[in-house]
């Protein structure tokens, strides 16, 4: 088929095409979806797919069973991968190639559920092999992520079959102002961090008198510990594109850009293919669906600079320049890319748009809170039992997220804090864990929503070390344009390093606070002015930890190398030899089944022994 | 030019819409310290942060850099609040820890009541100079001179102006505009006999046929002749003897 | 290193002749030559009519670009938050010791460049090591990572 005749000439043509592919996708047996998200790949999902292929072939089931090994689509439960599901409620975790024949025989051919491949509750030891029955999934609400499990991101037909691009028909039939009204009424707020109302942004941009306007997608997800946008771009790229087309129609833009982080090569590849496919189908480019509306999207690959997630730096970077922010006294809706009116929203925000247009603001507002409607996708990482990609209604409490979805803290340690918002956010202590997660509550607590990275911390996490970590990160990522950030961050880092290495002095906390003020008020862009949050929030909630480091030269969490020693408790040690095998210094000795000993003179206090010990026998003092 | 009235430190002053607050203040005799702003540059970078002022507009009060904050209707500016003084002092202290040897910064520190910086001082050749990485030199080179011989290199703490590949620049015409514009006198330019040295490159100077003084690099004359079509003979004499 | 000027032109040809293409061209240089060569920047300046100073400024600003050749393989230790909490720092030390390089350096035989990177977005594998563009390894047992690294020639 040539490119030209694939082009859909009208909204009606899209609808009949949809019916046609939906018909052709009907199968005798359920589809097998093997997760190909990065963690699942690393845990061996490729071998599982190969095993399915072989089994399907050897049983002569080809054409009857469809196997989808999505190169990317993340099914969420990363810590229990590889994940396999079937388009219904059944889901299997930690699947290995040897499980495949049984899965084909029982689940595919005979619709039987194999409970033993399900989730094992660590307390009750009960198994569950369904999305409904596994707490990690049961407490989620899948508005954005639902499709990730079942769509092949490289197949536009797959997206269209599941209702993709339907919102275009609705939007094109409306006056652009009315589309903005919808988004406004939905209460959609930008998922990239600040939570700015999307409708307000769009309206301001449309109001500027200009021949040319731009819509941009911020896929420069730079917060360490965040991978939501990556998963969406890799797993459901057309949803992002669809949202951008609606946005372009609403604000009157004919050119768009998606700026994608350099560290996400796969997202770049998948998004590029999606844009090409959409253009080939007449969903992008000139005269979209015969409506006379033109809009195209270019993909820009970032260059590995965190600051390019800041809107004005991102725009400079698209222009091919050094990604330095500019003063935003004139906002980018007025003077953005090439100094022309520009709307910039992030990946997840754009993905919400088709949902709102298709189902209406009233439906949208049924989820979430009054001030923060809808759901939020989080990457849950750190010391929780279950980690992965999750989606919950706005307003879910931190505790629900950590304890119900995350299943509590690993190895029975105590829940200490969560870090939200990446380097611009802060640490919220367990005592405030009943806070609802929404834009306003998190800001009030001294953190921020950020793009949605949630890092769970346990009692073995040192909060001074965490603050040092973020400040070091930011010092390295500062663009260097303004003095508070460029010169202030290395100095904050030095003070924090001194504290964690036992050279802290009285007055250091106050000096840090002073520097924080210079950055909050004096820095040029958001990266610099929010940089104090990790420090201020840890001082606010964990001041005694700072004081223990400074006064007693003690790290209560047992993390700061200069302030701790490692010992093996002879009573608890079973002599399994695991620690000795993993010790990089080879300074742990002992006979099998005998208590082991650490040679203090050679120990570098890396903590590997403590992490690998299954019997909690390694003590830190 | 639309004239509007704004308030600075409680006083009504007349200013031009969209001009910078710094400009409006200075035209009215109100002093605001500033390092990296320059009237010939179209977009002020606002990187040194010394010209911070407090502005109130539409019910919102915040600190902004006066060099690039546009004058708009209803603007109220305060140049001397406690917050302005406190944050400016912090900025200057950081600049002092970066460039303790720059006389301009030493003077600014004294004016802000700083004896010496409480923070570590950058050591090493790359750091221990007078440069505050404000980028004014590169802006002047691009916008005023038009040759773009230098640019800001690297990032973060390592950011500094330099020539491509750190080699003598083909594009440099030795005009020295960067050195004249530099607020902290950080760029080394020496004129010895008929030779000027700047950015690691040597330039032969044209001497004035009247006074015999070498006064302009040949490369600069070439550039002006090429870009403006001016007669080469014009440069036979220095400005004093034309 | 000898750089084929035709290869440089071929890369530049792929893109529109506008400043907007600069970063993408430099990325392609990095990918093809394992660094951004001076000749390449000079050529961009001629073809795209951008001052060399600006190209060099961009070349030194972005971390994805290197002005010195990197190894045949890049070993990226993720230092995202989750990885940091689970010992990315130690893992970097251990790998650095094995390869006899500091982060940012290339082994003498040109086999590996060791880098620390900000979050590769695979937090469930924390601490995670990424080799080249698509191989990820769980780093909780450092000795296993070292075993895997030996596979790369």
In words, what does this structure look like?
The complex is a heterotrimer of chains A (about 625), B (about 240) and C (about 150). Chain A has about 625 residues and is α/β, with parallel strands linked by helices. Chain A has 5 domains: about 30-140, Glutaredoxin; about 150-365, 3-Layer(aba) Sandwich (Rossmann fold); about 375-460, Roll (Ubiquitin-like (UB roll)); about 465-550, NADH-ubiquinone oxidoreductase 51kDa subunit, iron-sulphur binding domain (de novo design (two linked rop proteins), Up-down Bundle), CATH 1.20.1440.230; about 565-620, Alpha-Beta Plaits, CATH 3.30.70.20. Chain A has 24 helices and 19 strands. In chain A, the strands form 6 sheets. In chain A, strands 12-11-15-13-14 form a 5-stranded mixed β-sheet. A 4-stranded mixed β-sheet of chain A has the order 2-1-3-4, with helices on one face. In chain A, strands 9-8-7-10 form a 4-stranded parallel β-sheet, with helices on both faces. In chain A, α8 packs parallel to α12, α12 (about 235-250) packs across α15 and α18 packs across α22. Chain A starts with a helix and ends with a strand. Chain B is an alpha+beta fold and about 240 residues long. Chain B folds into 3 domains: about 5-80, Ubiquitin-like (UB roll), CATH 3.10.20.740; about 85-120, no CATH class; about 135-240, no CATH class. Chain B has a 5-stranded mixed β-sheet, sandwiched between helices. A 4-stranded antiparallel β-sheet of chain B has the order 8-9-10-11. Chain B has a two-stranded antiparallel sheet with strand order 6-7. In chain B, α2 runs antiparallel to α3. In chain C, β3 (about 130) and β4 (about 135-140) form a beta hairpin. In chain C, α1 crosses α3 (about 40-50). Chain C has 2 domains: about 5-60, no CATH class; about 75-150, Glutaredoxin (3-Layer(aba) Sandwich). At the A-C interface, α3, β11, β15, α18 and α24 of A face α2, α4, α5, α6 and β4 of C.
Count of separate DSSP helical elements of chain C:
7
Strand line-up across the major sheet of chain A: 12-11-15-13-14
CATH superfamily caption of the largest domain in chain C: Glutaredoxin
CATH class of the largest domain in chain C: Alpha Beta
The value of Rg of chain A in angstroms is: 26 Å
- Report the major sheet of chain A: 5 strands, mixed
Order of neighbouring strands in the sheet with most strands of chain C = 2-1-3-4
Largest sheet of chain C: 4 strands, mixed
Oligomer classification: heterotrimer
- Share of residues in helices of chain A: 25-40%
Number of domains of chain A: 5
- Number of distinct beta strands of chain A: 19
Average pLDDT figure of chain C: 92
Q: Helix/strand-derived class of chain A?
A: alpha/beta
What is the SS-derived class of chain C? alpha+beta
The helix/strand order of chain C is: HHHHEHHEEEH
How many individual domains of chain C? 2
Q: What is the distance, rounded to the nearest whole angstrom, between the alpha carbons of the first and last residues of chain C?
A: 20 Å
Globally, the shape of chain A reads globular
* Unreliable sequence segments of chain A: none
* The CATH homology group name of the largest domain in chain A: NADH-ubiquinone oxidoreductase 51kDa subunit
